[in-house]
Amino acid sequence: MLYRVQKRDIVRASKVLADAFQRDPLWNKICEGESDLEKRFRAIFEVPVRYCLKYGEIYAPSENLEGVIGLIPGKYADMNVWHMIRSGSMGSAMRIGLNVAKKMAPVFKLVNEDRRKHMAGHTFLHLSVVGVTTDLQGKGFGRKLIDEAIGKSEQERLHLYLETETEENVKMYEHFGFRLLNRINLPIVNLPMWEMVKVP
Hints:
Elements: E1 3-4, H1 10-20, H2 25-30, H3 37-55, E2 57-60, E3 67-73, H4 81-87, H5 90-96, H6 98-118, E4 124-132, H7 141-155, E5 159-164, H8 167-175, E6 179-186, E7 191-198
Parallel strand pairs: 4-5
Antiparallel strand pairs: 1-2, 2-3, 3-4, 5-7, 6-7
């Protein structure tokens, strides 16, 4: 049984994800040249935490928040401005900074377009974010979180869709039964991204 993250956990959950993604190639490229990366990463990951709390579900292995996973129903997968305002994540987005936001915009435009294309005609869950704090990685917490997402998608007969920025994650997700749909090259940052789905 996983712990369902609450509003009171927003700051801690954001810190967990910021730590988990500190070596992620996409976010490091997007934030390249920016000051106070730790603070910026926390703001970046506070956005999906707040968004998932409003429109989906967000879980941790326990109240200790060893890791975090966020799931969003497909109809809310595109984070438009109105949804961000309603979720309370617009303030976090503003703290990311204009330079970072400018780099993010074309990246997420392409990612959203691809997701809509791949999932056309399907009801699905978007695995928005998953990460385990670095000092606890390799201890089974990530598996526990992903198993929860898979179990939910199987129970509700929903496709489970995700994007990942690292090739080693592709192999891990394939081990969980996901199949690769597409490898794209992201604009501005010139990095690859892999789009994957698990069919119930």
